[in-house]
């Protein structure tokens, strides 16, 4: 069953990524990014990385994506017509993407082949999940609302001020 869920969430992430690449509307691109990020967060949950999954949702979905949506909805041009879509730029972009993908894949293959030959297998994820209270979200949450409450609240107020400032700047430039 976990393998089936993994493939389902991986397909969801890949579908969102392909939709992101093929869409021409910026709002649709933002929703495709949302789909991709949520699929990745679900994969993190399956890998017993609960904190990474929650951080993925809070930071990327809750922060970055909402900021992108605010920027899109406050701007007057949400169709993406300001992007240069000449055939030369598309081929150049495709060539650059292929070079980056090929180079990154070559680096990954060679670095992992050396690492797997030198070191023993990684312990099972179920054994890592058995660490219990030391890696749980419950203990992290307790620390955030007790020991680290002041830095946590300062960061949240700072993000709120930045969002309000960005909205005010965007509104002023749209009036001109």
UniProtKB/TrEMBL annotation:
Against InterPro entries, the record matches this protein to:
NADH_UbQ/plastoQ_OxRdtase_su6, Nuo/plastoQ_OxRdtase_6_NuoJ
Annotated GO molecular function terms are: NADH dehydrogenase (ubiquinone) activity; quinone binding
| Reactions this protein catalyses | a quinone + NADH + 5 H(+)(in) = a quinol + NAD(+) + 4 H(+)(out)
What task does this protein carry out? Answer: NDH-1 shuttles electrons from NADH, via FMN and iron-sulfur (Fe-S) centers, to quinones in the respiratory chain. Couples the redox reaction to proton translocation (for every two electrons transferred, four hydrogen ions are translocated across the cytoplasmic membrane), and thus conserves the redox energy in a proton gradient.
Please give an example of a GO cellular component term from this record: plasma membrane
The superkingdom listed in its UniProt entry is: Bacteria
Source organism per entry reads: Nibribacter ruber
High-level lineage: Bacteria, Pseudomonadati, Bacteroidota, Cytophagia, Cytophagales
UniProt record similarity statement: Belongs to the complex I subunit 6 family.
Enzyme Commission number(s) from the entry: 7.1.1.-
Regions that span the bilayer: 6-22, 29-47, 53-76, 88-109, 148-169
Could you say which enzyme class this protein belongs to? translocase
Supply the name of the protein.
NADH-quinone oxidoreductase subunit J
């Amino acid at each position: 069953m976990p393998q089936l869920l993994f493939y389902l969430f991986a397909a969801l992430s890949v579908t969102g990524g392909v939709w992101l690449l093929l869409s021409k509307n910026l709002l649709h691109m933002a929703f495709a990014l949302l789909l991709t990020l949520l699929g990745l967060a679900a994969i993190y949950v399956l890998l017993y990385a609960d904190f990474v999954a929650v951080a993925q949702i809070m930071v990327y979905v809750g922060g970055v994506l909402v900021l992108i949506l605010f920027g899109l909805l406050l701007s007057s041009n949400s169709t993406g017509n300001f992007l240069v879509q000449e055939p030369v730029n598309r081929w150049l972009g495709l060539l650059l993407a292929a070079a980056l993908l090929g180079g990154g894949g070559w680096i990954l293959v060679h670095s992992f082949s050396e690492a797997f030959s030198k070191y023993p297998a990684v312990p099972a994820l179920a054994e890592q999940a058995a660490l219990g209270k030391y890696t749980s979200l419950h203990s992290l949450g307790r620390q955030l609302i007790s020991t680290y409450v002041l830095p946590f609240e300062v960061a949240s107020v700072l993000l709120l001020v930045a969002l309000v400032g960005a909205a005010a700047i965007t509104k002023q430039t749209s009036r001109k």
